[in-house]
Amino acid sequence: MNEQKNLLLAIVASLIILLIFQYLFPTERKIVNDNNSKTLENQKVEQNIPVLKREEIINNTDRISFSLKSRLIGSIPLKGLRFDDIILNDYKETILSDSEKVKLLSPNKTNNPYFIELGWMSQENVYLPQKDSVWELIEGKELGPESPVTLKWSSPDGLEFIRKISLDENFLFNIEQRVINKSEKKYNLTQYGRINRSGTPKTSGFYILHEGPIAVLNDRLIEIDYDDLIEDGPSSNISKGGWIGITDKYWLTALIPNQKFNIEAGFKATLNKTERYQVQYTSAQIELEPGDETLIISNVFVGAKEVDLLDKYSKILNLNMFDRAVDFGWFYIITKPLFLILHKFSSIFGNVGLSILALTVLIRIFLFPLANKSFKSMSKMKILTPKMTEIRERYKNDKLKMQQEIMALYKAEKVNPLSGCLPILIQIPIFFALYKVLFVTLETRHAPFYGWVKDLSAPDPTTIFNLFGILNFSPPSFLMIGAWPLLMALTMYLQQKLNPAPPDPLQAKIMSFLPLMFLFLFATFPAGLVIYWTWNNVLSIGQQWIIMKKTK
After folding, report:
1. Is residue 220 part of a domain?
2. How far apart are CA 346 and CA 437, in angstroms?
């Protein structure tokens, strides 16, 4: 009776843990500060901040358009010369055919302003180009991979600012900023780059993935969460070169100063009317004598975090750790190679789901000796289970004698009860690294598999509670238990049956409920991860079954 009571308490505790996990780790969540419970748009209306449509602002300002041959579509306003209108031509918001393309940057006074600005500042009394300064287009018409544009702005104080903007075939802007001192006075100027983002964006809500301000300064990766930046206040670092930006799960905006010069890079957040996040860098002070000129060359990255492109830009710009914009995590030495193999398989098979299956097989082959040793140990332990049960029953009132007899049994049968643990511990980092690769990279985003799975980065869209779509009924989100999570739980249950049961009956009953707990947990995971885990279980079952046959 007491055992049944303990079992019931264990089940209730497990369900409570599961519900807490669902609450703390939803599929998507939005981080806001304590005073910001309303939507950003409603706040702006209440505070009389004009909110304009993105297209209205863009269509009513003089702009330089990007070439349609580029992977980026957008424009740069002549007033202020900000990067505030960028659309990713190859990526859509959803898998629907009529879905809009991903709008990465948006002008000020829209619902969610997100823009980049480059410029100059000085502590002296001198007119410099500002956000309202209108630049003159002196060369080029439409910006593209083979058609840079050059613009000019002249200061009443005799300084002439010339900016040449180039765009490669992907996501990289090159900016040459030249300042000519045509006055009779010496000036001290500082060049800066700045990314402004208003409103806290939606994040995936998983702590294994960083989204927010990011930088590599002094060869050190810096990641700051939005809420931490609000709570902890601004920070800054002096660095030679490096890069700084804001990362989403799949997208990145980054400022890349000249890698030969020292910069001061910083992060800050303000909460005057709504959350506003800013990352920036400033150069060392530049002295301009009369008749002198200076040239500053920098780059801006705005686009998708495609690993091969990030690696390419690292080499071209001599940029350190640019691929760390993808959150490969602590096991980088494992996750990066796994991604490269998955990427290669995707080019071979033409389907990311098949690539996941192939990569899982490759990992199983690599770990075969370790897994073999583990499964052999578990098989021998299962054979000894009846004898161990007999010993426990015989000496249930003498714990010391029981342990002595069990150790004697292990010695007589040449079985080490811990021999199966070490191989499993070695495998854990590899499997976690693969989990990380499938979760954080673009490889699975909107990638279809066979049957009902149209997006490997989203949870299985089916559910058993409406008979997988037969009934016209939409259950609540926590009951969205699809076919693939069910297959995963079934394979986990079958794998448990092949393993020796825990000697304690209560532990055995609790372990029998683990597949059910994992069923609800994995129902919220991306389908690609569930397919990987299910296929891995199937391979483990096959390997373990063969070893058990040989052991008997």
Report:
1. yes
2. 14
Annotate 478-496 with DSSP letters as a single string: GG---HHHHHHHHHHHHHH
**Does residue 73 contact residue 85 with C-beta atoms inside 8 Å?**
no
Tokens of 350: 């033409």
Pairing of strands 149-154, 136-139: antiparallel
Whole-model pTM: value is: 0.83
User: What is the C-alpha to C-alpha distance for residues 479 and 462, in angstroms, rounded to an integer?
Assistant: 10
* Total residue count of the chain as it appears in this document: 552
Q: What is the CATH number of the domain that holds 46?
A: 2.70.98.90
Work out the mean pLDDT of the chain and round it to a whole number: 85
Q: Is 117 within 8 Å of 302 (Cβ atoms)?
A: no
Question: Per-residue pLDDT tens for 125-161?
Answer: 999 999 999 999 999 989 988 899 999 999 999 999 9
Q: What is the DSSP string of 366-434?
A: HTHHHHHHHHHHHHHHHHHHHHHHHHHHHTTT-HHHHHHHHHHHHHHHT--TTTTHHHHHHHHHHHHHH
Nearest one of 314, 67, 58, 315 to 168, comparing CA atoms: 67
Give the count of beta carbons closer than 10 Å to the beta carbon of residue 365.
11
Residue pair 462/468 in contact by the 8 Å Cβ criterion: yes
432 falls within a domain = no
Residues 2 and 35 in one domain: no
Q: Among residues 252, 282, 305, which one ends one of the domains? A: 305
Would you call 67 exposed, middle or buried from its count of C-beta atoms within 10 A (0-12, 13-18, 19+)?
Answer: middle
Verify that 138 and 254 share a domain, yes or no. Answer: yes
- State whether the Cα torsion 344-347-349-352 is positive or negative: positive
Domain count of the fold of the chain: 2
Give the N- to C-terminal CA distance of the chain in Å, as an integer: 37
Residues 219 and 122 in one domain: yes
CA pair distance 470, 478, nearest whole angstrom: 19
Q: Which domain holds residue 180?
A: 31-305
Q: Report, as an integer, the average pLDDT of 321-349.
A: 93
| Bigger pLDDT: 160 vs 552 | 160
Strand 202-203 relative to strand 212-217, pairing = unpaired
Token pair in block for residue 178? 């030249």
My answer on whether 276 and 301 are in the same domain is: yes
| 129 phi and psi angles, rounded to 5 deg | -65, 135
> Quick one: 322 exposed, middle or buried, by C-beta within 10 A (0-12, 13-18, 19+)?
buried
**Which two tokens mark 386?**
């009846």
151 shares its domain with 190:
yes
Q: In this structure, is residue 71 part of a structural domain?
A: yes
For residue 180, being part of any structural domain is answered with yes
